[in-house]
Amino acid sequence: MKLFLLLVKIQKLGCEKCVKKQKELSLMARIDKNKDNVKVFDCTINFVLLSTIVIMEEEKVILVNELDEPIGLMPKLEAHQKAILHRAFSVFVLNDQNEIMLQQRASHKYHSPLLWTNTCCSHQREGETNIGAGTRRLYEEMGFTTDIKELFHFIYKAPFDNGLTEHELDHVMLGYYNGQPEINPEEVESWKWMKIEDIKNDMILQPEQYTVWFKIIFDQFYHFLEDHTLQA
């Protein structure tokens, strides 16, 4: 199916999820009405464009064992309801002042709304590499791309007040960026740069302002972030 026809179908459906995808497509392509197709104007985001082909399918997470070996797929909400171990990732972006770019989660998120957390986080899709997933989601949520690398992974389990539970094998990744993000309001309420020491102190004073996973991850690699410097 040509992407032009896909875009037309999205416009006719008009549901919230499809409108969101329509906006994503509009950011990445323009319609050439004479040729009845879509031309991608920036090859650096081709991977994001391809990720929008499946519109209505419910998002699924990759179930894994403690060795990070895939054992199946499950709808994301169901995995959080049943506290099933699944693969995830968390991206931290620093600037040349060694400040972390934090995001405030959007108000309509089904868990942890309006809490502050790391630059972005989500779940890998089937067949997707950790770096590919982190790069994709960084663009989807924060509107930019940068080189990222994986630091480590760990398993954590954390219940939420709404009855859901995060039980994830989380791949932690790090990148650098000195510009201003173009946040996606469907995902992100706000953002800010914050010094590492200030985050540590504020978590003690206001722990309720931060997501559960951010507090766990931050504690684990605090000293690494302290000593890490921007590589030219």
Automatic annotation (TrEMBL):
GO CC term, one of those recorded: cytoplasm
GO MF term set: isopentenyl-diphosphate delta-isomerase activity; metal ion binding
Tree of life domain: Bacteria
Pfam family for this entry, one: NUDIX
UniProt domain Nudix hydrolase: residue ranges: 84-216
The keyword Transport appears for this protein: no
Keyword Transport: no
Gene Ontology process terms (BP): dimethylallyl diphosphate biosynthetic process; isopentenyl diphosphate biosynthetic process
Pathway: Isoprenoid biosynthesis; dimethylallyl diphosphate biosynthesis; dimethylallyl diphosphate from isopentenyl diphosphate: step 1/1
Cross-referenced InterPro entries: Idi_bact, IsopentenylPP_isomerase_typ1, NUDIX_hydrolase-like_dom_sf, NUDIX_hydrolase_dom
Keywords: Cytoplasm, Isomerase, Isoprene biosynthesis, Magnesium, Manganese, Metal-binding
EC number: 5.3.3.2
HAMAP family: Idi
Family: Belongs to the IPP isomerase type 1 family.
Name of the protein: Isopentenyl-diphosphate delta-isomerase
Source species: Flavobacterium succinicans
